[in-house]
């Protein structure tokens, strides 16, 4: 279904968890991408200018990696602000999903990879409760992005 079922308490704890990691959006976004590129090297193929980078250090210094890391975190932040409003949430998720499906042709499994790395980072930095508070949000984001892919026939 396209309606989300977050209780008020879940929304508050998810936002609290997200705020901790979003404070350093660029650094944490960069860490997430560098981990993805290092642990899943095939994901680098979507980014022409990241392809030649092999070392994590080199990636961390790249303005493009940093810029995209911040972009990813900004998009998730917009979604987190609208967990209590399905229409607004989907208004962010749908165009994002369409762009990644039709223009960028990104394999949707990569959304799950990014979300899992974010959860991993939350747990490392802020503990299991922080991760647990945000898990439902990542499931929701991935489910809706995957739905967009089905709708556009990708």
TrEMBL record:
Question: Which coarse location class applies to the principal site listed for this UniProt protein?
Answer: cytoplasm
One GO term of the cellular component aspect? sarcoplasm
Report whether Iron shows up as a keyword of the record. Answer: yes
Q: Where in the cell is it found?
A: Cytoplasm, Sarcoplasm
For this UniProt record, the keywords arranged alphabetically read as follows: Cytoplasm, Heme, Iron, Metal-binding, Muscle protein, Oxidoreductase, Oxygen transport, Transport
Report the catalytic activity: Fe(II)-heme b-[protein] + nitric oxide + O2 = Fe(III)-heme b-[protein] + nitrate; H2O2 + AH2 = A + 2 H2O; 2 superoxide + 2 H(+) = H2O2 + O2; Fe(III)-heme b-[protein] + nitric oxide + H2O = Fe(II)-heme b-[protein] + nitrite + 2 H(+)
Span of domain Globin: 5-150
MF terms in GO: heme binding; iron ion binding; oxygen binding; oxygen carrier activity; superoxide dismutase activity
Q: Does the keyword Metal-binding apply?
A: yes
Q: Which family does it belong to?
A: Belongs to the globin family.
Q: What does this protein do?
A: Involved in oxygen transport from the lung to the various peripheral tissues.
The UniProt entry, under PANTHER family, shows: CYTOGLOBIN (PTHR46783), GLOBIN FAMILY PROFILE DOMAIN-CONTAINING PROTEIN (PTHR46783:SF3)
Spell out the protein name for this chain: Myoglobin
């Amino acid at each position: 279904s396209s309606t989300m079922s977050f209780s008020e308490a879940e929304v508050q704890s998810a936002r609290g968890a997200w705020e901790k990691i979003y404070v350093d959006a660029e650094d944490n976004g960069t860490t997430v991408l560098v981990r993805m590129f290092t642990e899943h090297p095939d994901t680098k193929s979507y980014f022409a200018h990241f392809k030649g980078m092999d070392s994590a250090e080199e990636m961390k210094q790249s303005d493009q990696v940093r810029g995209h890391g911040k972009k990813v975190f900004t998009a998730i932040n917009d979604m987190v602000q609208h967990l209590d409003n399905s229409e607004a949430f989907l208004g962010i998720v749908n165009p994002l999903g369409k762009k990644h499906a039709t223009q960028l042709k990104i394999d949707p499994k990569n959304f799950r990879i990014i979300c899992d790395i974010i959860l991993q980072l939350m747990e490392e930095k802020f503990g299991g409760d922080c991760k647990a508070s945000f898990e439902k949000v990542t499931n929701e984001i991935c489910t809706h992005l995957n739905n967009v892919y089905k709708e556009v026939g990708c």
